[in-house]
Specification:
- The protein is of the alpha/beta class.
- Helices cover 32% and strands 12% of the residues.
- The chain is globular, with a radius of gyration of 15 Å.
- The two termini are 18 Å apart.
- The C terminus is likely disordered.
């Protein structure tokens, strides 16, 4: 079984990975992205998860472990594995506020997209992810959505 921690950026995925690690569940990370002011306990990422759509062959390394996969990459999980998906849900307003704060702290320019537009995009995406999870929950790779 592979535990997949997923959700929108800034939804609590790193916190969940830290919690799983605290329970002695091994986590798959590459330790490239170090802890900073935005995630004091670390990001718990594996950079390969960001390009799962290009190469998903490495996912076998996650057998018996937890791995963080951003929600946009979930449909690219390869078949033939058993997954337990822990999908983090956080209020869209909080996600957007957290992203804005992180960008300000890093000195990055704020985007011109209003929060209402971003909230709509994220809500649409979450709906699509929910449909995808429902469609695949009984497939060969046994996806489960735990929220």
């Amino acid at each position: 079984m592979i535990i997949v921690v997923s959700g929108l950026p800034r939804s609590g995925t790193s916190m969940m990975m830290k919690m799983l690690e605290a329970t002695k569940i091994p986590v798959l990370t590459d330790d490239i992205r170090e802890a900073d002011m935005d995630n004091l306990k670390g990001y718990y990422e594996d950079e390969r998860a960001k390009t799962l759509h290009k190469d998903n062959s490495w996912i076998t390394e996650a057998e018996g472990k937890a791995v963080k996969v951003i929600s946009f990459q979930l449909p690219h999980l390869p078949k033939g594995h058993q997954y337990r998906i822990l999908f983090m849900e956080r209020k869209i307003e909080e996600v957007l506020a957290s992203q804005r704060k992180m960008m300000q702290r890093r000195g990055e320019p704020e985007d011109d997209v209003p929060d209402t537009v971003m909230a709509s995009i994220f809500q649409k995406h979450l709906g699509e992810v929910g449909e995808w999870l429902s469609e695949h929950q009984n497939s060969l790779h046994q996806l489960q959505r735990d929220t």
